[in-house]
Design brief:
The complex is a heterodimer of chains A (about 300) and B (about 290).
Chain A (H helix, E strand, L loop, with lengths): L2 E4 L3 H8 L7 E4 L3 H9 L3 E2 L3 H6 L3 E4 L4 H9 L13 E4 L5 H12 L4 E4 L2 E2 L2 H6 L3 E4 L3 H14 L3 E3 L6 H30 L3 H9 L6 H12 L8 H17 L5 H17 L8 H9 L17
Parallel strand pairs in A: 1-2, 1-4, 2-3, 4-5, 5-6, 8-9
Antiparallel strand pairs in A: 7-8
Chain B lengths: L2 E6 L1 H14 L1 E6 L10 E4 L2 H5 L4 E5 L3 H9 L12 E5 L5 H12 L3 E9 L11 E5 L2 H14 L3 E5 L3 H29 L4 H8 L7 H12 L8 H18 L4 H17 L8 H8 L9
Parallel strand pairs in B: 1-2, 1-4, 2-3, 4-5, 5-6, 7-8
Antiparallel strand pairs in B: 6-7
Helix pairs in contact in B: 6-8, 6-9, 6-10, 6-11, 7-8, 9-10
The chains are: A alpha/beta (about 300), B alpha/beta (about 290).
Chain lengths: ~300, ~290
């Protein structure tokens, strides 16, 4: 099975690396250096998405947004020009489910099956090959490409035959992760202002029903001075906007998600478009006027009597 | 044999009474509806009788008022003993109030420590449960066996009051975990996902939290996950919010959680269990149901 991979950014590059040596691999990216690195490892470089599609049986996409997927598939020299009946497109983008379903319908007209298979997890898990792959779409195409997905990570889920369910699940996951992350940080900041040590709070939270992905990963990392995330804050804001939009379309209230979105937006506005998610730690610290590690501000009352 | 006097009311106090009665001679003063009665515990009808000749006094009240009534006139605490009396507060109070009370009682020869017990479900404790101890380590050393009889996970948080502060931190995050899980599950369900799929995928992904691990499978199976009431959680979240205000911490999400719990408690009643929050999300999101646990 010949594989083509389009989108060799931080996440796409980490995922595609697992395919080197296991399948004949062609790659395409606007970043020539990223392509060059893959060529050195044995992959073939395609000059356009159309050329990559002509030379592949299964095409993977991992792009920033659904609008990028549309351009790569249907724009000038787009992959659709090189696709033919029986080929499969696997979209690993954190895209908009309804738009992905539209792309799938368009490709169906030429006998091509598209399904979504976004990933969820830290960059370290993508590199280690343990990231969660959350797929959805026609079962025949999913089963056919399953060995390829499992060579990226054995943690593969299939969430129904409707294209886009995987992206919806990813969006739900992102929202839960971000909301719990910010809630944990802001409450721990309050604890720091009382004078509770971070290490002790981490132990208490993880021993009880307060534990979550952040308390198990980010809090110990802060205490040890390690970085625990590697993700653009602007992309995180985009993901959360997508979650809020999905909720609004279905008239689902998301009061906590709305607050989490606002905190992230404050962070992005304060730090600028090149900020990393990790820098939200400093934003929460400054909002509470405290430090997670070291000497916290005095716990004296801040109220005006 | 060590004799323990326990004054309190409610589900947590009843659990503490049952656990202590397994190993110790226990005397109980029930401040509620009789839930503290259990095999092996002798019931008394006043504080002075409760305190007479007991080795350790434990308070586990549902309200600050009940605790304040007991501790504002502390003569009964010294009944029948010339030794320094140890009083363990296993309820949830304001950390500042606890500090102030401890200072006052100390002048009367009474050592007050806080050892608040966090659990969302006494039926499955000690899973996810812990005691947060605030006070001198020598007092913890002398009472550790007693506390371990209630819950084997004990975390010494610092001086008196710090146990209560730690519980507010833990509870605020636990409440956020749960509310975030309901909110996101409602969004996913309305967009075509099943609770079963969400339980499988989210709990193996970065969306994992303690509530998603318990609540999503329980919702799919129509089972309960907690016997804590909305009223109790709302009351404790109000204390967390008050502490944040005093300290100058914004705590935007946990404050929203406090408001949500107060609203839910007003809608469903203070004695409804926290599991019934699922009904609120089902109704407010236009989902079929409610499938109350």
């Amino acid at each position: 099975m010949r594989i083509g991979y389009i989108g060799l950014g931080a996440m796409g590059g980490a995922l595609a690396r697992h395919l080197i040596g296991k399948f004949p691999l062609s790659v395409f990216d606007l970043n020539k250096k990223a392509v060059g690195d893959f060529v050195e490892l044995g992959a073939a470089a395609a000059s356009t998405p159309a050329e990559l599609a002509r030379n592949s049986d299964v095409i993977f996409l991992c792009l920033p947004r659904s609008s990028d997927v549309e351009s790569v598939l249907f724009g000038p020299n787009g992959a659709a020009e090189g696709l033919s009946s029986g080929k499969i497109v696997v979209d690993q983008t954190s895209g908009v489910p309804a738009e992905t379903r539209d792309f799938a319908r368009k490709l169906e007209d030429i006998g091509v099956t598209l399904f979504d298979a976004p990933v969820s997890g830290a960059m370290a898990t993508a590199i280690a090959g343990t990231i969660s792959i959350i797929a959805s779409g026609p079962l025949v195409a999913f089963q056919k490409t399953r060995p390829v997905l499992e060579s990226i990570s054995p943690n593969v889920f299939h969430c129904g035959v409707r294209v886009g369910n995987g992206q919806t699940m990813k969006t739900v996951n992102n929202m839960m992760n971000v909301s719990c992350r910010l809630a944990t940080l802001e409450v721990v900041a309050m604890g720091r202002k009382f004078g509770l040590p971070l290490e002790l709070m981490t132990e208490a939270i993880n021993a009880t029903t307060a534990r979550n992905y952040t308390s198990q990963g980010m809090l110990p990392a802060i205490a040890e001075g390690r970085q625990s995330t590697k993700f653009w804050l602007a992309l995180q804001v985009k993901d959360i906007h997508q979650a809020i939009s999905l909720a609004a379309e279905q008239k689902v209230p998301m009061p906590i998600g709305g607050v989490a979105r606002s905190i992230l937006q404050i962070g992005l506005n304060s730090l600028g478009k090149d900020a990393q998610l990790e820098q939200m730690i400093g934003v929460i610290e400054s909002m509470a006027d405290t430090k997670f590690v070291g000497t916290s501000s005095a716990s004296a009352s801040k109220e005006v009597k | 044999m060590t004799t323990i006097g326990l004054a309190g009311s409610g589900e947590i106090a009843a659990f503490v009474a049952r656990q202590l009665a397994i190993r110790y001679s226990v005397r109980v003063l029930d401040l509620g509806n009789g839930s503290l009665r259990c095999d092996g515990a002798a019931e008394v009808d006043n504080a002075t009788t409760l305190a007479k000749d007991v080795d350790v006094l434990v308070l586990c009240t549902e309200s600050d008022e009940a605790r304040d009534v007991l501790l504002s006139k502390p003569e009964w605490l010294n009944a029948g003993t010339d030794q320094k009396r140890i009083v363990i507060d296993m309820g949830q109070a304001s950390p500042d109030d606890t500090k102030a009370l401890a200072a006052n009682l100390s002048e009367r020869g009474v050592i007050l420590v806080d050892a608040t017990f966090h659990t969302e479900n006494t039926a499955t404790a000690p899973e996810g449960s812990a005691i947060f101890f605030g006070g001198d380590s020598s007092v913890l050393d002398s009472t550790r066996e007693l506390l371990e009889q209630v819950c084997p996970t004990i975390i010494h948080c610092g001086d008196v009051g710090s146990g209560h502060a730690m519980r507010l931190v833990v509870l605020a995050i636990a409440a956020c975990n749960r509310l975030i899980t309901y909110e996101c599950a409602a969004m996913g369900t309305r967009n075509g996902l099943t609770i079963d799929d969400m339980a499988t995928v989210l709990n193996k992904s970065s969306g994992y939290n303690s509530a998603s691990a318990r609540v999503l499978p329980a919702m799919a199976a129509n089972k309960r996950t907690t016997n804590v009431t909305l009223g109790a959680w709302a009351e404790d979240l109000r204390k967390a919010s008050a502490m944040a205000m005093r300290l100058g911490a914004p705590m935007l999400i946990a404050t929203m959680a406090r408001s949500t719990l107060d609203a839910a408690s007003n809608r469903l009643g203070a004695t409804a269990t926290v599991d019934r929050l699922a009904e609120i999300w089902q109704i407010d999101s236009g989902l079929p149901g409610p499938a109350a646990a």
